[in-house]
Predict the 3D structure of the following.
Amino acid sequence: MIDVYSWPTPNGHKVHIMLEECGLPYRVHAVNIGAGDQFRPDFLKISPNNKIPAIVDDEGTDGQPFALFESGAILVYLASKAGRFLGNTDREKFTTLQWLMFQMGGVGPMLGQAHHFRIYAPEQIEYAVNRYTNEAKRLYGVIDKQVAQHAYLAGDEYTIADIATWPWLRSWQNQGIDWADYPNAKRWFDEIEARPAVQRGVQVLADARKPLVDDKARENLFGATQYEKR
Ligand SMILES: N[C@@H](CCC(=O)N[C@@H](CS)C(=O)NCC(=O)O)C(=O)O
């Protein structure tokens, strides 16, 4: 059994979708990041960076319980455990990892900042809004070009690179994106959205979600609590 410590955000949904795609048995534990659950000592033991998602597999590769944080590492772990969505040949695996890193190092951080400065920031800072909206548009352009030539990010097969990237593009409106500019990315997005496992994955913890922009959430996520020494 895999225990998942999570919240219904893009990084959380990556793992929910992957578990649904693989049909691996799991239990979800809500970590309400707006309420500050991510700073609880028991959560920090498995996720020292105070971020969801994290997992504990009661049967790791050596048969012992195994804890893991960082969504990209979790996807690679689950893909090896299930023997799916990582590619079969070395060429396919490294291409999948390349696009997974593109998500982890680019798509997630940049779209996250676009969202932050466009929606969460208490004041509109034009330089920051332009900088991250332009980065978002550039990244959508890279995705659009890639999926114009291939069915999926890493080639002909659906992989963890798609599973990692797709949840971030659900908030396209808040990132300043017009789908009309990225028709190939839109085709790819719609196709993945129609997958039954993806539809089940995005329902995980859907009822628990509260707005992340109330005063308490803002303080926990962007204020003094976030920067306390622990
Ligand atoms: N690189 C990390 C990022 C995780 C992350 O940013 N999680 C956010 C929610 S999407 C979070 O837990 N924020 C709470 C906080 O920063 O206190 C991953 O991919 O797992």
Q: What stands out?
A: The beta strands are 2-6, 26-30, 54-57, 66-69. The chain is about 55% helix and 10% strand. The mean pLDDT is 96. The pocket of glutathione is lined by residues 9-11, 33, 38, 50-53, 70-72, 221, 226 (CB under 6 Å).
